[in-house]
Fold this protein.
Amino acid sequence: MAELRRDPVVGRWVIVNTDDSLHPPDFEKEEHVFRQADVCQFCYGRERHTPPEVDVIRPSNTPANTAGWSVRVIPNKFPALRIEGELNKRGLGIFDISNGVGAHEVVIETPEHFKKFADLSEAEMLNVIKKYQSRFISLSGDRRFKYIMIFKNYGESAGASMEHAHSQIIALPMVPKYVLEELEGAQQYFNFRGRCIFCDIIYQEYQDQDRIITENTDFIAFCPFVPRFPFECWILPRKHTSQFGSLNEEEQHHLANLLREVLSRIKISLSDPSYNFYIHLAPVNQGNPGSYHWHIEIVPNLTRVAGFEWGTGFYIVRTAPHVAAKYLREAKI
Amino acid sequence: MAELRRDPVVGRWVIVNTDDSLHPPDFEKEEHVFRQADVCQFCYGRERHTPPEVDVIRPSNTPANTAGWSVRVIPNKFPALRIEGELNKRGLGIFDISNGVGAHEVVIETPEHFKKFADLSEAEMLNVIKKYQSRFISLSGDRRFKYIMIFKNYGESAGASMEHAHSQIIALPMVPKYVLEELEGAQQYFNFRGRCIFCDIIYQEYQDQDRIITENTDFIAFCPFVPRFPFECWILPRKHTSQFGSLNEEEQHHLANLLREVLSRIKISLSDPSYNFYIHLAPVNQGNPGSYHWHIEIVPNLTRVAGFEWGTGFYIVRTAPHVAAKYLREAKI
């Protein structure tokens, strides 16, 4: 039986299979083959083949752009947007255009070519989170940028073109549509109820219990009641905050641990599927939207998006989130 | 060089490569292998294995649910939504839910298992358009439904699970998000300017010329200035109308011809890619949104959608629409 569910933040309806869910063995498996090791520019010793690093964690006795680093951030060699120039917004007949100004960076998460992100150690994952934060703070300093999007594509079917573990950061000169919708939904709810909608969702998750995957002092992970994809997972700070830049050392630790744990649970439950994750943060350089609550959304790539979804924005989700959460909770990690 | 472009209807920004576009040979090719012919329930002689037909074009001397038909419409055996029951909208804590009431039908476009939709004859394509229209009218008669979505998935990577040529119709008890956004955008523009925004887009296309693919008396096809995907194509009625149900015989003809021509041009230019198309129609059973202008959007499946797109609603389009239109216009059909 299918149930129609409405996302309380953005108003999107989805169709969820509530009692004949697809289970992990029902999804096609994807093999992750390593083919690029011999020529990989993200490996030790090939640092000179990439643009010079803009941020890095490395021992102080190693020179920039040489081996020895643990996490390395470089500009993307084929950027979607260019760092130089002014925005120059203008009309063109009925249309609005602007120069493609922005930043596009790559976070190389480990020097080890064959190591998967979900298999990083606690210390390695912490380093990645630290670099997400330091790049966020640094890019926010450029007044041309209004939004910093941190995201990861793992696996070919999820859009990764390089197999060496990496994530990406794109700084945009405008707030993207989906984030704008969440901001507006959160603000409307706040105006109406005087509370954060994401805090209320967390409260509801604690009431219902069956969609929670795991938690620690600072963060909670659950399968949202209104997902777009089967086995979609969200990670939120348990206490209300719109600020990512001010995470302290302990919170960074807790975030790294929870992200690592959820990705391991996904890897084990679903036989190492391709996935995307992205961090929904508040915009930068245009005041603090205090009603927002930043979070991470993880979407395993298990099904194909087709005409119905592209045409409607409705999604057909064939695994109920409480079923997905049970698998993830019970995975032996 | 990349350019940021804003969709004038829904406000979505996209990043378009304007002078280093990807060309047809740059996209991965997909083979379409026929594997299901021996067991295909959409073929002649296997009519009894599908749910009974709800609409059909067949000679009057052939009994229902036997061979002899040219286009056949059946309920989907595995429907996303069920036809029985009432909507029963209700709250569940912070969430809104409703029963999964709707209709899900399959239009079998030809009895020939090995015939591709783009290769239908003019007469066959006309029959399909006629059935789209008659099902739209029939399903609109059910007051529980607010939206009728007609769409097609061609090819495995575009989500087709049956290889025999077919499209699908889903009747929904609420207007989907993307359509709502278009309706609101069109209404706001109408309030502001007293004109239809889609008519103004068509006017702009005639001014600019270089994104037009083809046209006839009643319809125009072009690659939109702000696409989500490379080689995205739109087909619109040239004269303003929000009404799909009232297409006359001549207009049906012209629509069938143009759809057939555009799909042939896509097939030839891009080596028969998988694609989706969907028809954006006005909602039903809730007044006539006169400011809307119905249309078809065709999206070839050439690239992978990844974390950036899922997280932002921004799209990175690596073929400029005027470049795509030139290939499509010049294809030898």
Observations:
- Chain A has one domain: 2-330.
- Chain A is about 25% helix and 25% strand.
- The mean pLDDT of chain A is 96.
- Chain A touches chain B through 70 residues (CB under 8 Å).
